[in-house]
Amino acid sequence: MLLVTLQIQTNKLRFLKIKNEEFRSAYYSIFLLNIILIVGITGYIWIERYSLLDAFFMTIITVATVGYGEVHPLSPEGKIFTAFLIIFSFGIFAFAASTLTRYIVSGVFRNYYKYSKVKKEIDKLENHVIVVGYGRNGLQAIEELQHHHISVIIIDNREAKIKEIQQKNELLYIHDDPSSDEVLERAGIKRAKAFISVLPTDAENLFAVISARELNPLITIISRAINFNTIKKLKTAGASHVIMPDKISGQHMAKMIAQPNIVEFLDYLMIEKSKDIILEEIACDDMSESFTIEQLKIVGKDNINIIGLKRNDGSYIVNPGMDIKLTIEDRLFVLGNQQDINGFTNYMNDGTA
After folding, report:
1. How many CB atoms lie within 10 A of CB 49?
2. What's the CA gap between 312 and 329, in Å, rounded?
3. Which residues pair with 224 in a beta bridge?
4. pLDDT at residue 19 above 60?
């Protein structure tokens, strides 16, 4: 998965728009240099009857004050014109040279190239996940999504967090307001399949959820909540799921005391990412034909354990019976190694193991 870095540093783009005063000064200096160049060439052609090439060369050596001799002997009018050209161009040339050098050394032009490249990458993305907020929870979500090879775009407007993201060149991010409609559209909110909001405060998460839901009514939205009384507000605003990390952490710690072996086993499957055995969700919407659990167990040769089933009405069946017939709206939860699960999925979809 190709992931690159995007940085934007003005109120709207935050870094690479011409509206940024420092970046605009580079364009301003180039504009002034072009004016001086045009005036010099025009003056030498008109006063000294130089050819275009000679006028260009004379203007360059005059503005740069490199000390070369004249192309042709100058007339009195030409000497006066050259003197004024040196006076007016010297400060402009020094300003332009220092400005462009500063931008090259500080990497602004390099980042502008990255911006153009990343904008093209964002425009190509579909079914990606937008994560707003690069804190502890956001980082964990991003790492898990990357493990499943899901493209991620990060949005955060905090300078300290952006510097952390910059240390990882493979991450794609936008440095701007995560609740702004324009920013979310730039991140491809209408093409994304999910939106995760893990901003520092409930108010920020609430605004981000409202903006995301308004722009994409069908997107799955998962939001972090800090206070219990915010959960209802977030769901009303459009959140599909609301998570309280502190509550989950407390429950997890309590279960490690009450049921330590069960918790360790689930952590082994879900968190430690065992290569020997994984828990996978398989959608049935691409089934080549209607199967029963027993028919699917045959192709699995007992290497696949179907531990659960989710019906289209949202109900769950744990350890489903062999006679249960699957529909394309169902989702299976299976346990096995990656190779067996891939063969199992292929059989479901096209009848070949």
Report:
1. 12
2. 5
3. 243
4. no
